[in-house]
Design brief:
Blueprint: E1 5-8, H1 19-28, E2 32-37, H2 44-52, E3 57-61, H3 67-74, H4 79-91, E4 96-102, H5 111-120, E5 125-129, H6 144-168, H7 175-182, H8 203-209, H9 212-215, E6 218-219, E7 224-226, H10 231-234, E8 240-241, H11 247-251, H12 254-262, E9 276-279, H13 286-289
Parallel strand pairs: 1-2, 2-3, 3-4, 4-5
Antiparallel strand pairs: 5-9, 6-7, 7-8
Helix pairs in contact: 5-6
């Protein structure tokens, strides 16, 4: 199948008692292995174990660079303390650190702070993400007013700060990262997505544009297989179960082929093709500094 990238996610995967064994086996098979975490249980002993198992990358969720604001958005008191401690630990390790943020109405004015924080903790890259599945409650979505402030004031300043920090640390600017950053939340003159409504695409456009069902599978702990990132929210369609059939069989099966052809209505709410990566790494190792992973 040519699969090379494996993400271990959750829930919170650091709860899983066989995590190190899973990473070790995946590395033996040749995968680039990435772990999504909020950092709550990622202490020095666990990091040492998973680093020794061969883990390539950790994506650490951060909601704000301000502790109180982070905890309020996260809905859990003390969560910033653990996330920040984890970021510092990972940044000192051999594991690639990606600071993962959802830019929303509660934290969008801190974009420059997120960039500075990522440099300070020795991250490899900063992952900029849009709110997902928030079109109904709109707890995180930026309003039209927020979008104007972001495009006119916050983003231009963040781009300047990114330039300045790269120069300060004597790092060659990455053109793709600059494009990703400058295009985040759309060009203020030409953006067509209704970001304020959580509608990111016209259905006919995203059905043609999105390649996720051609490169991705989501596997639940019970073995159920879903065809794309968006199906994580709809919990359907289930295109197979790895406890009953091979992944290759599922990949080539009728259910998967049907989904690739027809997709689903939820696609217009899915920002997966818009999320952006910004290179932070100070290393000359291009694989390490790539914002794409």
């Amino acid at each position: 199948m040519g699969v090379f990238y494996l993400t271990i996610s959750g829930g919170e995967p650091t709860h899983y008692e066989k995590l190190t064994e899973l990473i070790y086996e995946a590395k033996k098979m040749g995968f680039f292995v990435s772990l999504n975490t909020n950092g709550r249980f990622l202490d020095r002993p666990l990091l040492h174990k998973i680093e020794k198992s061969g883990l390539d990358q950790i994506k650490l969720s951060l909601y704000s660079t301000n502790g109180k604001e982070h905890d309020r958005i996260r809905g859990r008191r003390g969560s910033f303390k653990y996330a920040n401690a984890a970021a510092i630990l990972i940044g000192k390790s051999k594991v690639r650190l990606v600071v993962h943020i959802v830019v929303n109405k509660h934290n969008y004015k801190r974009l420059s702070d997120f960039i500075a924080y990522s440099f300070d903790v020795n991250a490899s890259s900063l992952s900029l993400n849009y709110p997902e599945n928030d079109y109904s409650e709109k707890y995180l979505l930026l309003s039209k007013k927020d979008l104007k402030i972001f495009r006119d004031e916050i983003l231009p300043q963040a781009i300047k700060d990114y330039h300045n920090r790269k120069k300060q640390d004597n790092i060659v600017l990455d053109r793709k990262s600059l494009l990703n950053l400058s295009g985040f939340y759309g060009n203020k003159k030409s953006a067509k997505s209704k970001f304020y409504d959580g509608v990111y695409w016209e259905k006919k456009v995203i059905h043609k544009k999105c390649n996720r069902p051609n490169v991705f599978l989501l596997i639940y702990p019970n073995g159920d297989v879903l065809p794309c990132n968006g199906s994580e929210y709809t919990h359907k369609p289930i295109v197979g179960n790895v406890r009953k059939e091979s992944i290759l069989g599922i990949w080539k099966g009728e259910e998967m082929q049907e989904y690739r052809k027809n997709r689903m209505d939820f696609c217009k709410y899915c920002p997966m093709m818009l999320h952006a990566g910004v290179s932070i790494a100070t290393t000359n190792n291009l694989k390490y500094s790539s914002p794409i992973k």
